[in-house]
Automatic annotation (TrEMBL):
Protein name: DinB family protein
Residue ranges annotated for the DinB-like domain, each copy included: 18-162
Originating species: Nocardioides turkmenicus
A Pfam family that the UniProt record links to this protein: DinB_2
Gene3D superfamilies linked to this entry: dinb family like domain
Amino acid sequence: MSPTCSQRLLADGFGRIAENLPAIVDGLSVDDLLWRPYDRANSIAWTLWHIGRMEDAQIAPLAGTDEVWARDGWVERFGLPYRPRAMGYGQTAEEVGAFRLEDPTLLTGYYEAVHAATLDLVESLSEEDLARVIDERWDPPVTTAVRLVSIVDDAAQHIGQAAYVKGLLGLR
């Protein structure tokens, strides 16, 4: 069965994140990835980790699966000083500053695994699934399609932020 137009559009949007994330990491040292333009700013590494975490945490319930973060051992591999379900929302500047990374391939590997789970979900969704209301707390209520577009939008904004900080590296 060939993908629907909706599936192709969603896969393309998520695919752009999957292309841009490793391009930002490429050529950067661990120090570059952890650098913050000022003490209350987010580092590139933290921002890219947050992209994966927020996507993973929202895709898993839609797919009816566990988060890749815990299921596949990424929480242990990263070894962050956060609670296991942390994803960056509401973290203080001090918590962001506590983010550490020894191996940049953790960022790209984790996002690749999340992206694969996202594409599995997207490929499984019918038009009826996409129209299903999943959150009635909003006006209008949020459908699966709206949630997926929101995830792409949030990730795209964060990719832009990380790219901007990468551009600032030459000015430090």
